[in-house]
Design brief:
This protein has about 200 residues and is mainly alpha-helical. Helix content is about 50%, strand content about 5%. Helix 4 runs antiparallel to helix 5.
């Protein structure tokens, strides 16, 4: 079965005690198991909280070396702020109205299930089912968003490495075609060849 992730990554993210995939990360009919999507969601949200809690220790601007040459190419960006914005925007597109409200109150603002239940007017069981749906749907969106997914998080920050230069990508030009020219014998060479064969036969 064709999947959009490598099998080893799915096994690493899968829950060993999952009763649906048995720790393989794949389900026969649905594809990638929901336990993998929830693991992706937790990894992304842990990085989200790290950025929010350590905001005062993070430089507002990041200089990235993205070229070679006598002067190189320096690119200025705000990768941590971009991560926070992308997480919210991707979750907003992937979730419906109730699920996004759960995402905001519980995962961004830190409200427990009781506060979410009172705020949204839903029962305890419906609230916990919404938690599971948010984690699986948003985790899948974080993983498959094209062309630049949020997961893996280290890949999101690729290039933000001090002292490292990333060479510019160049397209190799194809070599010009060389016509195939087999060697041709002259008339004198052919006559000489025939005489040699006749002499051998005699």
């Amino acid at each position: 079965m064709k999947t959009d992730s490598r099998r080893s990554d799915l096994i690493a993210l899968a829950l060993p005690t999952c009763c649906h995939c048995n720790g393989t990360g794949l389900r026969s009919a649905e594809g990638v198991c929901l336990c993998v999507e929830r693991s992706v969601f937790r990894i992304v949200m842990n990085r989200y909280r790290d950025v929010v809690e350590g905001e005062q220790f993070i430089a507002p601007l990041s200089l990235e070396n993205a070229g070679t040459g006598p002067k190189g190419l320096v690119r200025i960006g705000r990768p941590h702020e971009e991560l926070l914005a992308d997480v919210c925007s991707v979750a907003r597109r992937a979730l419906d109205e109730l699920e996004y409200a759960i995402f905001r109150y519980h995962y961004l603002l830190g409200a427990d299930w009781k506060a979410c239940s009172r705020r949204l007017g839903i029962a305890r069981g419906e609230c916990f089912h919404a938690f599971y749906r948010v984690e699986s749907k948003a985790g899948r969106a974080f993983r498959i968003t094209a062309p630049y997914p949020i997961y893996p998080v280290n890949g999101y920050f690729y290039g933000v490495v001090r002292g490292r230069r990333i060479p510019a990508t160049t397209v190799d030009e194809p070599a010009p075609p060389v016509p195939l020219r087999p060697p041709l014998a002259t008339k004198a060479q052919r006559v000489e060849y025939i005489r040699a064969k006749l002499a051998e036969a005699a």
